[in-house]
Amino acid sequence: MTTLTLTSKRQATFPRETCESLGLKPGDVIGLEPRNEGGTQVWVLRPLPTRPRAWVGCLGPRAKKVTDHSLDAIRESIAAGRKLGV
Question: Which end of the chain is more exposed for a tag (fewer CB within 10 A), N or C?
Fold first, then answer.
């Protein structure tokens, strides 16, 4: 039997073997479902489907590389955008 220990923040680390058998990867969402099995309450873990996030990073190629994040640079960028009607 595999055991888990909760931290003071109620976090637990699943053993590698458990994650591999469930097909879990970092960032996956797990559903917990209570069930009654023979008069005893048990919890069933099930990986939940995640929505595709094709939009993540899609604006990167269109963005200008900005290295100056000062307040003056931000104000200049806003002013330039207003002139363009953006």
Answer: N
Write the pLDDT tens digit of every residue in 1-41: 888 899 999 999 989 998 898 888 888 888 999 999 999 99
Let me know: does 23 contact 45? Beta carbons within 8 Å: no
Residue 84's SS3 state is helix
* E strand intervals along 1-86: 29-37, 40-48
The identity of residue 1, as a single letter, is M
* Chain position carrying tokens 């002013």: 79
| 37-62 CB burial, b ≥16 within 10 A, e <16 | eeeeeeeeeeeeeeeeeeeeeeeeee
Whether residue 41 contacts residue 33, with contact meaning beta carbons closer than 8 Å, is answered with no
